[in-house]
Specification:
Structural class of chain B: alpha/beta
Radius of gyration of chain C: 22 Å
Largest interface: B-C, 72 and 54 residues
Shape of chain B: globular
CATH architecture of one domain in chain C: Orthogonal Bundle
Helix content of chain B: 25-40%
Largest sheet of chain B: 11 strands, mixed
CATH class of chain B: Alpha Beta
Strand order of the largest sheet of chain B: 1-3-2-4-6-5-10-11-9-7-8
Chains: A alpha+beta, B alpha/beta, C mainly alpha
CATH superfamily of chain B: Amidase signature (AS) domain
Number of domains of chain B: 1
Number of helices of chain B: 16
Distance between the termini of chain B: 7 Å
Number of helices of chain C: 3
Helix content of chain C: 25-40%
Order of helices and strands of chain C: HHHEE
Structural class of chain C: mainly alpha
Distance between the termini of chain C: 34 Å
Oligomer: heterotrimer
CATH architecture of chain B: Alpha-Beta Complex
CATH topology of one domain in chain C: Histone, subunit A
């Protein structure tokens, strides 16, 4: 059922939004949280399961150290305190995708708590920082995956039955929960999106997750409530699940503000419920009402012993944390002399780390950026692979740039050399030699080629002499073609003008 | 009937390894015994004739090849049906698992197989180990070989009965509140609950995770120690497994010297509520211990009277969660799936049909104790009482080396006598429960028959955590004197079974 | 401390997913009431300054290295399932999303 909504601007003029965000991150560990099964995405159903993650009678959990370490690192990167002692707890409820009918999670003793994340957004008054308060980050395990069979839609409602694949069951999850985020006013959607984006960047920088929202390794629930004024007490909130892209985070907040406002303005109450976001239609629909039947009967997990991370371990992990992505970005923008827009292009291309590596190896930032966001992105895209999978190293780019500055390669030849690297023909010098890639620097062959080109098109010399210098392009092109690209185009142009006695 | 069935495990292992008797002969003798008497006793739920003979033959092949054998190679054993066995049915005495065949072995089973112990089959038990009589098995009760109208104890009545009826010289039990020790006491056999964490729980269907512990059952202290040494040790698959050397229980069983030891009688575990014959045999044991040069003192553990109550909150709470996985989705039987019902309804019907009334009672009780608003008063409070119990033990062990008490307040009662009175049934475990609550090791040792009913009485010996060896030292010292006094094992006094 | 009704038992049975027939609710209520009265003894001790004990072994930080182990095959995984389709566990229709 589509519910009434109020225009967003009107809604925000009447009510003050309070946001809450719950983000689930699937860790990129080799194995699951409590067993040695692989976590690789996309395996055939029920092939990455064992007695533990299938919840077979008698099986017991054994805790993945990297899962704990990742949780601590995430906590530290989010400015959290790390518990000196904490336990897992069982969250008891029945659901067919949950093998044990309880989820091994953390309850009142999360491993990380009381943190914050600063995010920047554009406002009417320019760029502004919002501090998002973080309540906790805790460890838990993922569930299996249901697919619904029968009925018209393949959705849960109307299905005849369901099929369950437990490959995902037991993959480590970190749930990161904010405190109520107040004071955003009309920027609630932007703050929500910026928070999730910043969180994603941090998690990527930590290397703890591939943070692919489309594959579900980063999942977001949006909690929202409205109140009359910032001084009023908190209103009833809705919890919108399945918000699985950055754009959807923004849209879902906007939609829920409009929906809540319409209800409140009409004198209705907001129902405390779980809602589902629909990416295609841009609306949320009602799921399950919270009820008293929801009694999770948490108690300390007896099969797992308490975790007491030593302060030495925590400090060791803190010292090894990568630079905060936002801080790093600001530093690089300044160092490289980029605009924010250029930096966005770099970040969106996924090439930032590769460019940094190249620059650290001595490649000029502009050149590194040009190669990684241009030619190399195109190649990776054509091949349907990630940039990181290309066999191009900082040393390759460095040598390429040296040859270009020395004038022995031009852009076109440099691209051919890279092509050689990618198909595995060796290092740059080997490829240049083997493929015979060298700018023709001897003027003799160039002058001969110019003469040939002018002879083939007798009119062009006059046109150029008459001052239409642009016509030189066709001659230069013909020469480049004749020399199979190995000529220095600028030199050809120079020689041509010299010969015709014109100056630029 | 072959006399092989009356031999001790240690003796059988010697005969097999020396080649005097083949492991196949030993296995066959016990399989014959099972065929002859298990119709009366009903200790076994599943007898694996073929598997037993195959593993016995493998031991014989090793003997022929001159390979080194483990201390119990070729010795038959009954396995409580709560341990997962790859390729062998595992029911936990429950209809809900009838026909389930696990795709993996419990760690204890792996260790037994590696040691060449011959698994004869799976033994009967109270459903999911909930009970003290084995009457709560969905597949019918086990009968006490001393008197077939009486219970063999529980939950591991199948394991105690198979040992005491000479169907197997060894058995594995599990003990959450006394399920190895109380059956041992009422059948005149020896049973040990090791230190919590001493034996891996991996592959043992959990009742109450923080209390469960598997352990050895046998007819004498040395055999019990040998089996203990085979199954104990650190297991990375069980996070609560202790990563430390296993106490040398076999050496302790051979030492059998308690001169100069301090032995404490737990004041709260005895006296009123304990059968007269149980008390008199216990008092005789105290005199015997003193005669062996140990000093006996009385110690008080004031929180123990609340242990039973705390136990009957902690156990159902953990069990209600542990048993949630039995829903007819991934394994086991499913009931009511006619295509029209929701998964919730089918799960609920499956569980109602698959669980017996005692299991349902405890799941409901545990669900209640954990639910919002009651947690602090029940589960939370019980966990605090648990701390007090541990503190009482700590204080006691500051003064003495081991503690003793009767294992159970009474001898074996009649089948059906307490079935409709859960509270009366729970009282059987009053002396054994504090040991589980604190995670300590405990042994039950036969100390004679109660004069009024000629049924076995057990002595409980309790040691500090990871001092399991003390149980065997003390137990073996007492056993040696009693064997001399009786002129042979206590089980020699048991009536012959008709089948034999 | 107790006083458990048939309605309480029905609610708990729903939470525990056990379909107890209506005519047995009274029986269970009576037994549970008796048991709860007995276990109320846990409140007889003073535990004001006592910590709760969740684990009987005094150990912490028991971890496993992040190294893959052996998984079951799909055939083994599905071997005990009451209903299977398409290498997956087949379950009756699910009424609601979690």
């Amino acid at each position: 059922m589509v519910e009434a909504t109020m225009n967003y601007d009107e809604a925000i003029s009447k009510f003050d939004p309070v946001l809450g965000l719950e983000v689930h991150v699937e860790l990129g560990t080799n194995t699951k949280m409590f067993c040695g099964c692989s976590t690789v995405f996309g395996a055939p159903p029920n092939t990455q399961v064992c007695p533990v993650c299938l919840g077979l009678p008698g099986a017991l959990p054994a805790l993945n150290k990297i899962g704990v370490e990742s949780a601590i690192r995430i906590g530290l990167a989010l400015n959290c305190e790390i518990a000196e002692w904490c336990r897992f707890a069982r969250k008891n409820y029945f659901y067919p995708d949950m093998p044990k009918n309880f989820q091994t999670s953390q309850y009142d003793e999360p491993i990380a708590f009381e943190g914050y994340l600063d995010v920047e957004i554009d406002t009417d008054e320019g760029r502004k920082t919002f501090r998002v308060p973080i309540e906790r980050a805790h460890m838990e395990e993922d569930t299996g995956k249901n697919s619904h069979v029968g009925g018209a839609t393949g959705r849960i409602h109307g299905a005849d039955y369901s099929l369950v694949d437990y490959n995902r069951a037991g993959i480590p999850l970190i749930e990161i929960v904010t405190k109520p985020i107040t004071g955003t006013g009309k920027y609630a959607p932007e703050v929500a999106k910026a928070y999730v984006a910043a969180l994603r960047d941090i998690l990527r920088g930590l290397g703890v997750s591939d943070v692919k929202m489309e594959q579900g390794s980063l999942r977001c629930d949006v909690n929202l409530s409205l109140r009359e004024t910032p001084e009023s007490k908190l209103g009833t909130r809705s919890e919108t699940k399945n918000v699985n892209s950055l754009r959807s985070v923004e849209r879902a907040v906007r939609y829920e503000v409009s929906r809540h406002a319409a209800r409140l303005a009409a004198g209705d109450t907001v129902v405390q419920e779980t809602r589902h976001w629909h990416e295609d239609t841009g609306i949320s629909t009602s799921g399950r009402a919270k009820s008293d039947a929801e009694d999770y009967r948490y108690f300390p997990e007896p099969d797992l012993l308490p975790i007491a991370p030593s302060r030495e371990w925590v400090e060791e992990l803190r010292a090894a944390l990568p630079e905060n992505p936002a801080v790093r970005r600001a530093r690089l923008v300044a160092d490289w002399g980029l605009s924010e827009i250029d930096m966005n292009t770099v970040v969106n291309s996924g090439a930032l780390d590769l460019i940094v590596e190249a620059v650290d190896a001595g490649v000029d930032p502009a050149a590194a950026r040009k190669w990684w966001t241009g030619e190399l992105s195109r190649i990776a895209n054509d091949r349907g692979i990630e940039l990181e999978e290309l066999p191009v190293t900082p040393a390759h780019l460095k040598r390429l740039e040296e040859l270009i500055s020395a004038g022995s390669l031009n852009d076109k030849l440099a691209r051919q050399a890279l092509e050689g690297v990618i198909v595995g023909e060796g290092d740059i010098d080997e490829i240049v030699k083997a493929r015979g890639l060298a700018v023709v620097s001897d003027d003799g062959p160039l002058l001969a080629a110019i003469d040939e080109a002018l002879a083939a098109d007798p009119a062009v010399a006059e046109t150029i002499k008459s001052g239409k210098l642009a016509a030189a392009g066709s001659v230069v092109g013909a020469v480049m073609k004749a020399t199979r690209g190995q000529a220095d185009a600028a030199r050809v142009r120079e020689l041509l003008f010299e010969k015709l006695g014109v100056s630029e | 009937m072959s006399d092989l069935i009356r031999k001790d495990a240690s003796e059988l292992a010697g005969l097999v390894s020396s080649g005097e008797v083949s492991a196949v002969e030993v296995a066959q003798a016990h399989l014959d015994r099972i065929a002859a008497v298990d119709g009366e006793v009903h200790a076994f739920l599943h007898v694996d004739t073929e598997g037993a003979l195959v593993s016995a033959a493998a031991v014989d092949a090793k003997v022929k090849a001159g390979d080194k054998l483990s201390v119990l190679a070729g010795v038959p054993l009954g396995l409580k049906d709560i341990l997962a066995t790859n390729g062998l049915p595992t029911t936990c005495g429950s209809r809900i698992l009838d026909g389930w065949i696990p795709p993996y072995d419990a760690t204890v089973v792996t260790k037994l197989r590696e040691a060449g112990v011959v698994i004869l089959g799976k033994t009967n038990m109270d459903e999911f180990a909930m009970g003290s009589s084995t009457e709560h098995s969905a597949f019918g009760p086990t009968h006490n070989p001393w008197d077939l109208e009486r219970i063999p104890g529980g939950s591991g009545g199948g394991s105690s009965a198979c040992v005491s009826s000479f169907e197997a010289p060894l058995a594995i039990g599990t003990d959450t509140g006394g399920s190895i020790r109380q059956p041992a006491a009422v059948t005149g056999s020896v049973g040990v609950k090791p230190t919590y964490g001493g034996v891996s729980r991996y592959g043992i269907v959990a009742l109450a995770s923080s209390l469960d512990q598997a352990g050895p059952c046998a007819r004498n202290v040395l055999d019990t120690a040998l089996l203990h040494s085979v199954i104990a040790g650190h297991d990375p698959m069980d996070a609560t497994s202790i990563n430390a050397p296993v106490p040398d229980v076999v050496a302790a069983a051979k030492r059998a010297d308690i001169k100069g030891m301090k032995v404490g009688i737990v004041k709260e575990l005895g006296g009123e509520g304990y059968q007269a014959g149980v008390r008199s045999r216990f008092e005789e044991s105290v005199a015997l211990i003193e005669s062996l040069g140990a000093e006996v003192v009385e110690v008080s553990c004031p929180s123990f009277p609340a242990a039973l109550a705390a136990y009957y909150l902690i156990l159902p709470s953990e069990a209600s969660s542990n048993l949630a996985k039995f829903d007819g989705i991934r394994f086991g039987n499913r009931v009511g799936d006619d295509g029209s019902k929701s998964v919730e309804q089918v799960m609920s019907e499956t569980r109602a049909a698959g669980f017996g009334s005692e299991v349902i009672r405890r799941i409901i009780l545990g669900t209640y104790a954990l639910s919002a608003g009651y947690y602090d008063a029940y589960y939370g409070q019980a966990q605090k009482v648990r701390t007090l119990i541990k503190q009482d033990f700590d204080a006691a062990f500051a003064k003495v080396d081991v503690l003793i008490s009767p294992t159970a307040p009474t001898t074996a009662f009649k089948i059906g006598e307490k079935l409709d009175d859960p509270l009366a049934m729970y009282l059987n475990d009053v002396a054994t429960i504090p040991v589980n609550m604190a995670g300590l090791p405990g042994m039950s040792l036969p100390i004679g028959l109660a004069p009024e009913d000629n049924l076995p009485v057990g002595l409980q010996i309790i040691a500090p955590a990871m001092a399991d060896d003390r149980l065997y030292n003390v137990g073996a010292a007492i056993e040696r004197e009693l064997l001399a006094k009786w002129g042979g094992p206590i089980l020699g006094m048991a009536p012959e079974l008709a089948g034999a | 401390m107790s006083g458990i009704s048939q309605e309480d038992v029905a609610h708990l049975a729903r939470l525990a997913h056990i379909d107890i027939p209506a005519d047995q609710l009274g029986h269970y209520a009576k037994q549970l009431d008796a048991i709860l009265n007995a276990v109320a003894e846990v409140s007889s001790l003073d535990t004001a300054n006592v910590a709760a004990m969740s684990h009987p072994v005094p150990m912490t930080n028991v971890f496993r290295e992040d190294i893959p182990g052996v998984s079951l095959t799909a055939e083994q995984a599905l071997s005990g399932a009451p209903a299977v389709e398409d290498e997956r566990f087949r379950v009756p229709r699910i009424l609601d999303e979690e």
